[in-house]
Amino acid sequence: MRLFFLSLLGLLMAVHIGQAQCLSGTCEDGVGTYRFMDGSIYKGAFKQGLPDGEGVWNYPKDGKVKGLFKKGLPVGEDAFIRAPKAKRKTGCVSGNCRNGIGVYLDEKGNRYVGYFKRHKPSGKGICYYPNGDKYDGNWRDGLPNGEGVLHHASGQLFHGYWQNGNLNSSIKTPKIIEEHALNDLPNSKTYAVVIGIANYEKMDVLDYSDDDAYNFYSFLESSKNRSETIRFLVDENATAANITAAIEDVAEKAGTNDQIVIYYSGHGVEKAIIPFESDGKTNLLPHEEISHILQHSNAKSKTFYIDACNIDEPEANIQRNMNFDGLTVFYSSSPGGESREYAELEQGVFSYFLIDGLKGAADADGDNHITIAELYNYVFVNVNNYTESEQYPWLVVGTE
Known about the structure:
Elements: E1 2-5, E2 21-25, E3 30-35, E4 41-47, E5 50-58, E6 64-70, E7 73-74, E8 91-95, E9 100-105, E10 111-117, E11 120-128, E12 134-140, E13 143-151, E14 157-163, E15 166-168, E16 190-196, H1 209-222, E17 230-234, H2 240-253, E18 259-265, E19 268-269, E20 272-273, E21 285-286, H3 287-295, E22 301-307, E23 328-331, E24 339-342, E25 347-348, H4 349-361, H5 372-386, E26 394-397
Parallel strand pairs: 1-24, 16-17, 16-18, 18-22, 22-23
Antiparallel strand pairs: 2-3, 3-4, 4-5, 5-6, 6-7, 8-9, 9-10, 10-11, 11-12, 12-13, 13-14, 14-15, 19-20, 20-21, 23-26, 24-25
Helix pairs in contact: 1-4, 2-3, 4-5
């Protein structure tokens, strides 16, 4: 339905190897003491098997980090600056520098702290340079790629989007567009239904679908939309009846100059989303049923974003011809495809780049107006690259 790749597990894969072990307490969810393969010892709070909360991380050669940790990484400006100095070791200093979270020191003295994928920095991370510079942001294949900030030793900041280690000034940062974030209709209101289901009644739990929904809701509110025009349904509140009622409500209230946005993140099958109470085969909510409700609305613009798997489920038996008149449907994956969520993003990869694009990064020509073509191109390229061509977003533009 929707896959989850937990790269963080690499950090603790050594539990059953060599001397890596939980020395005392609870190293899964609680307070404990854990010894890693490199001899470093963490003592403090754990959540889902990772340092999370107040703790102390002691290194074999007198280095120590004391303070707050989040998902295995220290929080704060002083993170890892007091790492071992008695003997400069190059390579993987601590953690998992293959697929997980680790600390890597190269021959030039550059120290990287963050996520790794296939032995290269990929995901969120910080690099401390010998000259006092620091880059904090997204990485891919060992180079800054995506949004990030270079803190120059002089105090100057270079914030923006990076491509293969270089700041690309032609790509706007997400802050430049708020009032033009969706379809730039003058004097219009946005009526929205935002749905996110992670904890299903009868299906596997997802990790970030509820976070996806909260992030999309926050984006809508930050774009000068009033909260009373946004219906928000998460987990047990996102039943088929409640979803249908919410969509009917916004469809009725939206005027001829307004826009409707429906956003869904959760389990899905081809031609239908899966409400909270569904088992994935029965009690589904077909896309066409949602489209049919919206077709009765006077709203000028109607868009449906779906971050869910798009695989065929024969037992669901949805025998319907898709009719999307006047509705633009943006799927996270092509027909038969799966949608993925990543720990380093703390989101579904589609939702991450969708929100990023709507905030302004998709504005390819810099005219402060994002067309559906610009948005699709931005999301498609980034999702496809990030998942290494394993996920292809798909767009259906219904005719009027």
